[in-house]
Amino acid sequence: MDNKERLVKNWLIKAKHDLLASKKLSQDNDYKDVAIYHCQQAGEKAIKGFLVLHDKEFPKTHDIRLLVQLAIKINPNFKQYQESADILTPYATEFRYPGDVLEPTIEELNEAIERAEEIFNFVMLLLSDEIRNCINRLKSESDIGADK
User: Fold this and answer.
1) Exposure pattern of 12-47 as b/e (b: 16+ CB <10 Å)?
2) What is the pLDDT of residues 101-148, one digit of tens each?
3) Are 25 and 104 in contact (CB under 8 A)?
4) Which of 62, 83, 106, 131 has the most neighbouring CB atoms within 10 Å?
5) pTM of this prediction?
6) Residue 114 CB neighbours (<10 A)
7) Taking Cα atoms as reference points, which of 115, 114, 138, 136 lies closest to residue 125?
8) Dihedral angle, C-alpha 93, 96, 97, 102, nearest 10 °
9) 129-136 and 3-26 are packed helices; what angle lies between their axes, rounded to 10 degrees?
10) Largest CA distance in the chain
């Protein structure tokens, strides 16, 4: 595995960790604000990994909408994630700081998890078998909490 492939793998490992963290945190009603942030991060990091794979530079941003636009130029099938990008992007900051609304509803959180997972899974399909297999060997959702 060359350096670029390793970097792609590392972006996707971080995305998977964020996705798994969001699912684990969503099990406790007290951490919905943190869980939804990790959904945004999972989507962002998965797309950044895809862009790295294709040598496409991107700015330092948490704007998934922008990242999806860059990804569409490489693979037009990313168009199907424009709405997900619109939904997930605000969660980079919306509940991280005190404001009028301190946490998302359970419905918002569940939708964010679903949309982040769809983006992650789509990017995984676009990776080489070698990279995908490395990521799949990581702890799965069913393993979370099993080593307590």
Assistant:
1) bbbbbbbbbbbbebbeeeebbbbbbbbbbbbbbbbb
2) 789 999 999 999 999 999 999 999 999 999 999 999 886 554 444 443
3) no
4) 131
5) 0.91
6) 12
7) 136
8) 110
9) 40
10) 48
